[in-house]
Amino acid sequence: MPTTNPTPTTMKHVTMHWNPADPVAPNSVEELIHRSNCLGTDQRITNTGGGNTSSKISEKDPLTGEMVEVMWVKGSGGDLRTSKKENFSSLYQSKLLDLQRVYAARAEKGLKSPAEDEMVGMFSHCTFNLNPRPSSIDTPLHSFIPHAHVDHTHPNAAISVAACAKSIEVTKEIYGDEVVHIPWMRPGFELGLAMQEACKNHPQAKGFIMGQHGLINWGKTGRECYELTLELIEKAAEHIEKKQAERGGEAAIFGGAVQAALPEEKRREVFAALLPWLRGQVSQKKRFIATIQDDEKILRFVNSKDAPRLAELGTSCPDHFLRTKIKPLYIGTAPKADTPVEESLR
């Protein structure tokens, strides 16, 4: 598992978890696993079960004995923070590229076409060494980007850029030519082809902001790729922080506060009375365990003027509602600090 880097870092919005002393061999599956665990450990970088990483590694073909390029990529259903080797698919890179000819020969192809959907089933024909792990739908993105190591994440800061109304302009303002904006397309073969073309047209680029989706970037080494991921997230977060300060700072976020949070002791009293009932309601068909998040940033949002409107908009990234559903239930009325708990729950 990753260890926090003891070396001082200037990064404020992400944490370096890859210690240079960590014993991982370069350009190995073990290094890919370590990189993935380091990324997933910082929950500001990607959601649980979301994002994927890949490395193109030279390995001996068990059939021919020849060295071939194998792409290892986090498979469907895995979680970066806890991933092990069995959570990664391994595929012949040459066969994945050959699928482009298969796809091009289809008469009716394109975004959301039956031909594109059918390509997902073709990934299993590219499996290296009988690896049973199902491939992610994001496999073409990693394969068709012509770089050895690729990270695809859903950082809070990058998604804020990807989902904003002026995403193209903001991407350019933050990154210049370093990162290119890719308009929203559902994950799949067409998006992989679009990224391949964008890499040809922008050879200086180090990554893409994927409209309404997230961040994808690459490097010559696993370590370089990891550090770039952190750097690009940090740049986006710094830009957001700067714009926030220009527009009134903390006090003006989400339209400003309309009510104050209950004192912590009072919140705990309300939770103790409310949560057993709430858990019973949501567990009538399937048992659930509730968790609470009432840190300063959450309270700032739920007590703000714009919270009801923004909550109704739902998640900003499609991958997020896999875990959180499309949108939360926002309950706008809050009890006053001097209201008895029993009365506030009626």
Summarize the structure.
The protein has helices spanning 29-41, 93-104, 114-122, 139-144, 156-162, 167-175, 189-201, 222-246, 264-282, 296-302, 307-313, 321-324, 341-344; strands at 52-60, 67-74, 88-92, 149-153, 179-182, 207-210, 214-219. It has 346 residues and is of the alpha+beta class.
List keywords for this structure.
alpha+beta, L-fuculose-1-phosphate Aldolase, seven-stranded mixed β-sheet, 2 domains, 346 residues
Q: Explain this structure to me?
A:
The longest helix is centred in the last third of the chain and has 25 residues, at 222-246. With 346 residues, this protein is of the alpha+beta class. The chain has two domains: 29-245, L-fuculose-1-phosphate Aldolase (3-Layer(aba) Sandwich); 264-344, no CATH class. The chain is globular. The protein contains 13 helices and seven strands. Helix 7 (189-201) links the parallel strand 5 and strand 6. Helix 5 packs across helix 8 (222-246).
